[in-house]
Structures are given as C-alpha cells and as structure tokens.
Amino acid sequence: MKKESTKGVIFTSDDIEIVMYDSADMRDFGKATFLEGKSSFNLLFLLSPDIHLNVNDCGRQFKFQKNQYILHYTSEESQAELWTNQETLKYLQIQIKYQYIFNLIDPESNRESEEILKQMVDNQFIFLYKKTPPEMTVEMHMILTEIVSYYRKGVMQKLFMEAKIIKLLILIFEQFNEKNTAEDLSKIPLIIKKFVDENFHRNLKIEEISKILGINETKIRKEFKIHYQKTIMDYISELRMLKAKKLIINKDLMIKEIAIDCGYEYVQNFTRAFKKKFGVSPEKLRTSSF
C-alpha cells in the first residue's frame, strides 16, 4: 500500500510558517507546489535526492541534491513546482515575513546589519559557490530534527521555533562568511603580485607591503610562496634583474642610475645581484653587447 502525500503545517504564527512535505505517492511522481507569500523570506531544506524546482514566474529550472538548501526572498506572491523521479519527495519550508527579519536584524542600527539584509533581499544566499546551492551542516540537521519533533504548543512553541530559526540564520550567515573569507584568501597572492609588479623598482620591504595592503607579514610570505612557488623577495629580485638587463643596452645610462631605477640603494648590491643572476657583471654584459 502506497503512502499518501502529506503536507503538514508544523508551526504557524503572524510572522512564521513551517511546513514539512513528505510524499511517497509515485502516481504523481512526487510532485508538489511550493508557495511563497508576499514580502517573505523562504528557507527551503531539500531532504530527498534529485529534486527539480521549476520557478514559474521566471521560467528557470534548478536541480538540488539531498541536504542542500536555499534562502530566497520574494516581493510578490509566487509559486514553483517541485518534483522528483525518486521514491520520495521530502522538504522542509520555513517562511518568514520581511518585517520580522527587518525588526530582528535592525538594518538601521549598523552597517553590518544593513549589508546582511541587503544580501538576503538580493538573494545572495541561494548559491554558495558559483551555481552550487549550499549544503546543510550537521548542526542544521539537528535543529531541523528539533523543530519537527517539538511537541509543546502555545507561547513555549513560539519562543522555541523563533530561537531555532534565529540559530539557523546565524549558521547560514557564518557559512557564507567563511566562503567569502576563503575567496578573499585566494585573492591575496594576486593582490600582492599586482602591488609588487607596480612597485618593484622601489626599495620594497615585506613590512611596507604588509602595512600598505593591510595583510599580515606571515600571511604575505606564506600565501605568495604557496601560489607562485618562490619567495616574494626572489620574485622582486627577478623583476629587477629583467628590467636591469633591458636597461644595460642603453649606453647613456650610468650603472648607478640603472641600479637606482631597479630599486637598489647601493651599486655594490646591484652588481652583486646582477652577477649572481647572469654570471657576469653589468659592465661586462654591456661591453659584450656592443
């Protein structure tokens, strides 16, 4: 005997509605209509594999794997079709009114709160990496289990559900903040390289680079070495030597001028570095070039 489709309202209030949908009725291939109210945020946790979502108002289709989720804002009432060819279609929807989130975050209190609300409204919490929906964490799973199994009613239920929703939002913000931090870290070597490419002719020191870029000295050394397989000072020296070799052919430039133009305060240091790199002194290379 096939299990009938069940759509149960777990909790509802003036600001929040929590719905669990669980279907094993293969006659309709596990189809459901996903409803979003006007000016609302919708947390959709996908609890079964290979769920397709067809958004009617924009004609887009998405496919989700089990344990993925999205946080979506809609300004107008809308609906979408969910379906799967698997045995069951199961998801949990938490719908929260905009004004509740507005009062909770209080975007007028500080810049961080304002930015979080803007990201939520702009639907920045749908994809974690490129086109990939975020994965539920173990802690998120535990909270959903608590929400579904909570048995009290009245004010205790209201306080409990709101507390769990706030915790879910915190976990989501933290997850995306970690993603942004990881992306920022991946850009560090490129930021350093760009700065060095533009300033290698100066008497650069790691301390100065750190101060100007606002990046820890240790992080500068480590990230650059990992990304480019050479130390930052070796890279600076390489750029200086390549420039020096090009300038050597200009007989109108004194060796001292070339040294200064390449970031060396003392000619002796420049000559030593040049000979180490090319096997001959700047003077000899200049003589052999003509």
Give a structural overview.
This protein is an alpha+beta fold and 290 residues long. Among the domains are: 6-136, Jelly Rolls (Sandwich); 233-288, Orthogonal Bundle (Arc Repressor Mutant, subunit A). Helices cover 48% and strands 20% of the residues. It has ten helices and nine strands. A five-stranded antiparallel beta sheet has the order 1-2-9-4-7. Strands 3-8-5-6 form a four-stranded antiparallel beta sheet, with no helix packed on it. Strand 1 (6-12) and strand 2 form a beta hairpin. Helix 3 runs antiparallel to helix 4 (155-199) and helix 4 (155-199) packs across helix 6. The protein starts with 5 loop residues before the first strand and ends with a helix. The relative contact order is 0.09.
Give the averaged pLDDT, no decimals: 84
CATH first level of one domain: Mainly Beta
Structural class by SSE content = alpha+beta
Largest sheet: 5 strands, antiparallel
Strand order of the largest sheet: 1-2-9-4-7
Secondary structure: number of strands: 9
Uncertain regions: pLDDT < 50 for 5+ in a row?
A: 1-6
CATH superfamily of one domain: Jelly Rolls
Beta percentage is 15-25%
CATH architecture descriptor of one domain: Sandwich
